Fold each of these.
Amino acid sequence: MTERINDHGQPIGAALPDWQGARLPGHDGLAGRYCRVEPLDAARHTADLFAAFSQDPSGAIWTYIPWGPFGTEAGLRTWIQGASGVDAQPYFAIVNGASGRAEGVASYMRIKPEHGVIEVGGITYAPALQRTPAATEAMFLMMARVFNDLGYRRYEWKCDALNAPSCRAAERLGFNYEGLFRQAVVYKGRNRDTAWYAVLDSEWPRLEAAYAEWLDPGNFNADGQQKQSLSKLIEAHRG
């Protein structure tokens, strides 16, 4: 970020004379080649999500999530009913195009349109969705909306610093590590040191180009295996 010097000889941030703020994300759905991102709805998504989450009988996918696990479909439905329809934190179901079923959830949160800052969080992927093109495309679609349609300046990802898979996912998706907030959260009766990651609007065009190249059908062989990794493509586009 370019610094300036004010009349007192002090460094100050870059001027933003045309900044009008960003727009709220709302609950509109998104559609891609491999997935759909739909407004979370108890009647529409509970059964699919419960079946998908039940494929992890150990409950390990819930370790770093403040809610869950859900032992019954009714329990999951109650949570969805409470989470859906909240404008301050819109939740979405991730529908895998390969199965046609909801197999994950994610949300926008900590939304500050006046500053152009928004976070993606609450990401919970069932085993069937993990490590699939649909899983990556869902994150791409949500990021693209933030920068291309809503005008945000900063897109954040935060997680328990002990959640190594989430940290790796953030870095793979192009988020930059910004630091550790110690003793930032108490959840499930334990401490959480929070790792912070973010993407800025100035970084987005190169990321968008890398995602487009990775998601192209030509990047996958007949068995659905990638030919080039997203990390390598992002590195190449960053130069």
Amino acid sequence: MIPQGGSSRYSRQLLIHGAASQAKLQSSSVLVVGAGALGCGCLPYLVGAGVGQITVCDGDVVELSNLHRQVLFCELDIGRNKAEVAAERLRLLNSDVLISAVAQHCGFRERTVMLVESHDIVADCSDNVGTRYLLNDVCFLGGKTLVVAAALGTEGSLARWNYEDGPCFRCVSPTPSHHESRRKCTDHGVLGPIPGALGALQALDVLRCLADMGDNGSSVLRIFDGLSLRPFGLPQRRRNCALCGDNPSLISLADSERWARNQGLSVDSNYQMCHFGAFPVPPLAPLPRHNEATALDLKAALQSSRPCVILDVRDSIQFTICKLPGALSLPLRGILEQPVVTTTKVRDASSSHNPDLFVLCRRGIDSRFATQILIKLGFRNVRNVTGGLDAWRREADPTFPVY
């Protein structure tokens, strides 16, 4: 039964799918994980369409750099939790919809299982690989469909997993690919309309599933390049899939958490590789404590009389945006692909003073890889700057540029 006034509010879509489908939407519930750019593109259309209950889950706060693409927010929202602000704005759009905010990231905990189980379908707008595997596993174990969107640069993708007898995400990606697990728009940019378009398409796919609109019989992966939308048919469910196969090895959330730890994945959206990931990297392993340094350690070293060299492993584009005085540009890709050249460059920079080598990147993740490699190449006085330039700005120099 359409509520009073609903025939007017939803009149344009009622002409498309009819009253029965609208009633299905209004009795449905959607969990939207991520209120960033994809969420800002997806959420208004779910709310506008009259989905009965929507929960928004995000632990991040609004930043100035978000505003060019996360159009639910404004300058006055900077520093506030994204899920809470999004819920406030969306309630103004449609009072028929019950909108809840969860001001934290999804994680390997019972709360995530409860959230998934209490909704009819899940939309992953996090664009975080660790979260994608987590939600895929929890959705499969709970019998829920997962609609996933991703965006970077001028490209994006949209997929539906665990739908009827279709494949799960692990059927297509049993383990994170180098390209997939190390991409993040904070380091390599994204045009605002790209995640907006992908989020809108994601909302469309959720509505199709909930209201049985169109042909929902097969799972499809859609690749968006900013100019065209090319559909690719997905393979059938893999019989040897670790999650949905005939003899699964992942049968609980604890199994999924152990697997993620072994893969070096995190569901914290702030933990991502700093580079685009078009090249392979070694596994991320803990560094010995004496090979770690804080931003304040680096500041003290620069102010002391002991010689030190800063090795900046960001790509050349980021290096031109901002850098510490005297830093040597030594991109991670070059370290991986040309270790002999790297050794020569570092030794030339070190001269004969046996200086301390401080390795840093934007957030201290790529620099950990680089530090591991430099240790294997024979360098001893090498230390990774934990937190990278972000930590430098927070702890050592608040005037340092942020990007």
Amino acid sequence: MVFLRLLLSSGLIFAAATALLVDENSKNGSSEAVDYRLPDNVVPIHYNIKLIPYIEEDNFTFDGEIAASIEICEATRNLSLHAVNLTIDEAVTSLVDSNGDIHAPTTSDYDDLTEILVLNFEDELPPGTYVLNMKYVGILHNDLHGIFKTSWLATTHFEPTWARRAFPCWDEPALKATFNISIKHHQSYTAVSNMPIREQDTDGGEGGTVWTHFHTTPVMSTYLVAFTVSDYVRVPNADGTVNMWCRSELAPYSKLAQDAAEKAGQLLTWYTNSTDRVPKMDHLAVPEFSAGAMENWGLIIYL
């Protein structure tokens, strides 16, 4: 009993000391909360994204380029957006206003904790629509987040906040936009994304590569953007709206999964009485994935 009283007394003394320490730190400002949210003075409207993943080489990188249409709601000298592990070419970063005038940032700041990049401009930017142009180099990660490479396949997992590893963006779920995605890859590989392919061009035949351009997505959050580059084969259903993507040796075994996916889609459409139609639904199995599956718009990726 004496030991118990002593233990309780020690606990009370420790708790009191901790409370005093926290209170003292609060007075000194050392416990100030970190604000991870972006300012609300800029709203993204549309992203044009070009990506070149190097999945055949061993450099584990990709080249990227964005032209992001944005609306500045309040006059500002700063633009804040997310970016992680992206080496941005500051020499070609520019902001073009609706009159075609070009504004170049004079300096930039980056916060490793919040993962927010701030572009600073000399002149005040009045409210209006602008296009932010940026070029950068990113990393094909091996931790199954962002754009990652596994078994000679490049794919994505952007939920909850990993789109910023693939392109500079306003990476908060409420900041929705439309997306045009273009991917350059070897002709022996296939690129798949949220939307059907709009067109392909051979880029002058350079090294047997091709650009695959996809249709514009509906308005959606950044974490729902998805794409893959692989040598998988496509197994379509009768009308080509439900496609299974897998290694060629597994194609004969994909029919059961395809039938289940097609029936599930029909049932959910009936149950929700939804009139929104996804133009196609691709189902793609990958050898490694940090989640059991990811329900991206038009492209579901499974382990």
